[in-house]
Amino acid sequence: MDTLTLTPESDFPTPPETTTATTTAAPPAERPRFSDFPLREELLRAIEAAGYTHPTPIQAAVLPPLLDGRDIFGQAQTGSGKTAAFGIPTINRLRPTGVVGAIVLVPTRELCRQVTDELEKLAQGSGLHILSVYGGTRMRGQFTALERGVDIVVGTPGRVIDHLGRGTLQIDRVKIVILDEADEMLDIGFAEDIERILRRTPRERQTMLFSATMPGWVQRLVRRYQRSPVHIAIESEHATVATVAQRYYEVAERDKLEGFLSFEEEFGRDARLLIFRRMQVGVDRLAQQLTREGWLAQALHGGMAQADRTRTIDAYRNGDLRVLIATNVAARGLDIPDITHVINYDIPQNPEEYIHRIGRTARAGKTGVAMTFVGEWDYPYLEAIKAQVGDVLQPATLPIYQR
């Protein structure tokens, strides 16, 4: 049972007016329904058509304050249902005017597409027009859409800044600003762009901020740009981790490929693998090596053309691709429900990244496996991870070392 905690962070200054409370997710028989909330009829129909049955914990927690017009900062992970959590109150509030009434900022092109797709499902029947703007695509189509009129813009900060500089996007009448995965946008280097964008929006806007972690810059955003925010923290990370069988393997760098291949029988024919490497060159090299070994494997990283990235993600999501090898940045925001194994071919360099990675398996009540290769120089990273996750991370021996 997930626990929802609505509390101020104890490790950073919180505005005195910040609302605090503590609550626990209801048992299944008492779970709320979307019809329990004051939502428009066409939105309720769209929610049902999109396949939603009951609100997820994050949705049930944020809908009341957001529908009341409150600012919130929520801590929840990819796959928790947070797109609908901010999308439902946004669509409920806006009317189709052709003037940008809401802007959603996301860290990556892939997440931009995913959020836009989800919002379009929820906006069915509302008349609202939604546009995604991100780099790697031609500007002309975006210019045309903005000239015709758009109600919600979903974009990466860099492309939004580009449009603001050209005068093709106006956000001075925005009612709602949403920052999705704020900590990831900080990691990528978007901090300055985000603050420039926020300063261009009305002070009386409603601001929704979502972040898995609360680094100093995110804390500063909360203090500087939100008004009496409600903090909603979904304590589900460790519940997710607990459903993942976690093993680590000591391995020499030269033996990693052979060690990975030795698990082919364990993986089975139906396995869906997500492999993480630290560098783009390592991603490409491993994709080539596995392809030569007869695996249906492809690379995903920021150095690829956008069209190639899109085709790869679609193939992986549709099940046409068995193995995806990715960098941390490229895989951010991916929400694919049937990943059976996460392989840390290169160990994460901090516990938070480890938890984010392995949380991509064991979704929707399923179990999953996380395998981490530990090289000669990786023990400080391993010890930090073990200190965070505890005894669930167990040592194991590669089959090639058991011969």
CATH fold assignment of the largest domain: Rossmann fold
Mean residue pLDDT: 87
List segments where confidence is low: pLDDT < 50 over at least 5 consecutive residues. 1-29
Tell me roughly what share of residues is in helical segments: 25-40%
Query: What general outline do the C-alpha atoms trace?
Result: globular
Q: At the first level of CATH, what is the class of the largest domain?
A: Alpha Beta
Strand order in space, largest sheet? 2-1-9-3-8-7-4-6-5
- Give the strand tally: 16
Tally of helical segments: 17
The CATH homologous superfamily of the largest domain is called P-loop containing nucleotide triphosphate hydrolases
Would you write up a description of this structure?
- The protein has 403 residues and is an alpha/beta fold.
- It has two domains: 3-235, 3-Layer(aba) Sandwich (Rossmann fold); 238-401, 3-Layer(aba) Sandwich (Rossmann fold).
- 39% of the residues lie in helices and 18% in strands.
- It contains 17 helices and 16 strands.
- The chain has helices at 41-49, 57-67, 82-93, 109-122, 139-148, 157-166, 182-188, 191-199, 216-225, 237-242, 256-261, 264-267, 280-292, 306-318, 328-331, 351-358, 379-389; strands spanning 3-6, 21-24, 72-75, 102-105, 130-133, 152-155, 176-179, 206-210, 230-235, 244-250, 273-276, 297-300, 323-326, 341-344, 368-374, 393-396.
- The strands form two sheets. A nine-stranded mixed β-sheet has the order 2-1-9-3-8-7-4-6-5, sandwiched between helices.
- α16 links the parallel β14 (341-344) and β15.
- It starts with a strand and ends in a 7-residue tail after the last strand.
